[in-house]
Design brief:
Elements (H helix, E strand, L loop, with lengths): L1 E5 L3 H12 L3 E5 L3 H8 L10 H10 L3 E4 L2 H5 L4 E4 L15 H13 L4 E5 L7 H12 L5 E5 L9 H6 L4 E4 L3 H10 L10 E4 L1 H32 L3 H9 L20 H14 L5 H24 L8 E5 L14 H11 L3 E5 L4 H7 L3 E3 L3 H5 L4 E4 L11 H7 L4 E4 L6 H6 L3 E3 L7
Parallel strand pairs: 1-2, 1-4, 2-3, 4-5, 5-6, 7-8, 9-10, 9-12, 10-11, 12-13, 13-14
Helix pairs in contact: 1-3, 5-6, 9-11, 9-12, 11-12, 12-13
The structure holds uridine-5'-diphosphate-xylopyranose.
Catalytic activity: UDP-alpha-D-glucose + 2 NAD(+) + H2O = UDP-alpha-D-glucuronate + 2 NADH + 3 H(+)
Protein name: UDP-glucose 6-dehydrogenase
Family: Belongs to the UDP-glucose/GDP-mannose dehydrogenase family.
Length: 436
């Protein structure tokens, strides 16, 4: 099949490279000339494990290419995926659909024959109807069908998520579109990946419901963690105790500093707004959004408490800045609120992150950056683990303590068991690990 991916951002690039790897001929189109130039010269603008090799191999095999020229790319395409951004609109939290609608207009203006348009961007229910209206109005002469195919990719594991999906959701009101998309995903039949074909609106809502549910699961265990601290229970054991119940499941029950990233914060908010507009508010998700927002700042207070009530004039070492490991993404990362809270309370911050420092520099001020965990801990009054990178999971705690001024460890991801930290001379604070 010949596929065009409109938008060479995170989702477009990963999806395009994976489709090419399935054997399709893929052209990624983006209006950002610098990005396309970089990609043509083999420079990948994002950090995602395995993506550089996947792109290089498929370019070498002539299955994957990059261009700014949509008119040329669309000529022979069977399907065109819209994979542009849908950021939160400033001020009201609704998804900003201007890039999606512009993509629809560009497609309509450049289409030369029948084509299936597939929205991969996360868009509120009903967006497909509007995309269809736009293309039909501009090009009544051509048969253009519009479908929805939401992505469920985790940053840091996107390629494996794409190639071994739990399911593929296809929202198509028309059998031709469903058949074309089915053909594009056919290489996955071998792995028996379930393909669920639904109406377009159902597919659009499925994506939001999935993310909102996962965000709810995390927020639920985070609140249980707070309760554990109060009553002297251990949230990791509670999570295991409930997670082994198949109806609940063990995943997404790790208590921490709150969820961040490019999807959960924006998608939960967009769902809340859509539901309010429809007169059927999703109050659980409203609570999740509010609880998660407050939690990030509350983590700064937790650090202050661990530092005997004050961080004024103290040097706090932060390990991990990105919203999760294996990404350089800083969007809505808990580290941003936690560091701001500590700085407001008079702390000076030294930080280290394996991949996120370049992005962090643009968002944080007055932070010193270290080259590794041990130099970060040098002369520190406390060390705070915010992101559970592999590099932080087997630190030599004794060596770490020796270079610090005060051996305080605040482990916001429960990477280390309390006993191990204490054995190495640390005063330890985890999340939801109560003491009685
Ligand atoms: C998420 C969804 O998983 C993916 O399906 C969707 O398409 C995009 O959004 P992503 O944002 O890359 O993916 O990361 P994910 O691994 O889901 O983690 C999101 C946030 O939740 C991170 O901040 C992470 O630290 C946090 N989290 C996750 C927890 O705090 N506890 C958990 O148990 C799991």
């Amino acid at each position: 099949m010949r596929v065009v991916m409109l938008g060479a951002g995170y989702v477009g690039l990963v999806s395009g490279a994976c489709f090419a790897d399935f054997g399709h001929t893929v052209v990624c189109v983006d209006s950002a000339a610098k990005k396309i130039e970089d990609l043509q010269e083999g420079r990948i603008p994002i950090y995602e494990p395995g993506l550089d090799a996947l792109v290089a191999e498929n370019v070498r095999q002539n299955r994957l290419s990059f261009t700014t020229n949509l008119a040329e790319a669309i000529k022979t395409a069977d399907a065109i995926f819209i994979a542009v951004g849908t950021p939160s609109r400033r001020g009201d939290g609704f998804a900003d659909l201007s890039y999606v609608y512009q993509a629809a207009r560009d497609i309509a203006q450049n289409a030369t024959g029948p084509i299936v348009v597939v929205t991969k961007s996360t868009v509120p229910v009903g967006t497909g109807d509007e995309v269809e209206r736009i293309v039909k109005e501009l090009r009544p002469d051509i048969e253009i069908t519009v479908a929805s195919n939401p992505e469920f990719l985790r940053e840091g594991a996107a390629i494996i998520d794409f190639k071994r999906p739990d399911r593929i959701v296809v929202g198509a009101n028309d059998p031709r579109a469903a058949a074309v998309i089915g053909e594009i995903y056919r290489p996955l039949y071998l792995n028996q990946a379930p393909i669920i074909v639904t109406s377009r609106r159902t597919a659009e809502l499925t994506k939001y419901a999935a993310n909102a549910f996962l965000a709810t699961k995390i927020t639920f265990i985070n609140e249980i963690a707070d309760l554990c601290e109060r009553v002297g229970a251990d949230v990791q054991e509670v999570a295991r105790g409930i997670g082994l119940d198949n109806r609940i499941g063990r995943k997404f029950l790790h208590a921490g500093p709150g969820y961040g990233g490019s999807c959960f914060p924006k998608d939960t908010l967009a769902l809340v707004k859509t539901a309010q507009d429809c007169g059927t508010p999703v109050r659980i998700v409203e609570a999740v959004v509010a609880v998660n927002d407050q939690r990030k700042r509350a983590m700064a207070r937790k650090v202050i408490q661990a530092c005997r009530g004050s961080v004024r004039g103290k040097r706090i070492a932060v390990l991990g800045l990105t919203f999760k490991p294996d990404t350089d993404d800083m969007r809505d990362a808990p580290s941003l609120s936690i560091i701001a809270g500590l700085q407001d309370a008079g702390a000076s911050i030294i930080a280290y992150d394996p991949e996120g420092i370049r992005q962090a520099k643009a968002l944080l001020s007055d932070v010193i950056y270290a080259d590794d965990a041990y130099s970060c801990a040098q002369e520190a009054d406390a060390i705070v683990i915010i992101t559970e990178w592999n590099a932080f999971r087997a630190l030599d705690l004794n060596r770490l303590r020796e270079v610090m001024r005060d051996p305080i460890l605040v482990d916001l991801r429960n990477v280390y068991p309390r006993t191990e930290a204490e054995k190495n001379g640390f005063k330890y604070t985890g999340v939801g690990i109560g003491m009685r």
